[in-house]
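Q: What residues go here?
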């Protein structure tokens, strides 16, 4: 396995662990979301919305961790990549369409993580292609 894919796997584990922490925070205190993320409309954040956000974040965390474990699984790889696109679209829409979030560090951090992750996973696809081609050559 290439060095890049190993770094990507480590990145996915780190992002997954951080997301698991955010999940716990969402279940423990919904004020976390109104203070850090949805600062433009904090009154819209309630316990139900926080728990829903927590479940969504937990699902993303599990998918990303599973991809780090089995990074050669193409279906899982694409699903993981989609979780980052989904997060990016969600947070951008909250800022620019729904105006429930402002461009604070609380929003910039997940936007940067999603963007860097998308970029890294797209580059990682190239490494997976090279690995697949070299394995096919060895079989023939």
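A:
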């Amino acid at each position: 396995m290439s060095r890049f894919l190993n770094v990507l796997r480590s990145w996915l584990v780190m992002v997954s662990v951080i997301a698991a922490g955010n999940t716990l925070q969402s279940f423990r205190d919904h004020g976390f979301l109104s203070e850090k993320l949805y600062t433009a409309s904090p009154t819209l954040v309630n316990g139900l919305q926080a728990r829903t956000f927590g479940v969504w974040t937990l699902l993303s965390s599990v998918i990303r961790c599973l991809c780090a474990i089995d990074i050669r699984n193409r279906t899982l790889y694409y699903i993981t990549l989609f979780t980052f696109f989904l997060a990016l679209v969600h947070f951008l829409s909250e800022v620019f369409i729904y105006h429930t979030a402002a461009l604070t560090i609380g929003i910039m951090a997940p936007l940067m993580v999603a963007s860097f992750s998308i970029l890294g996973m797209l580059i990682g696809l190239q490494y997976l292609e090279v690995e697949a081609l070299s394995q096919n050559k060895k079989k023939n």
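A: Context that may help when evaluating the design: The chain has a mean pLDDT of 95. The longest helix spans residues 105-139.
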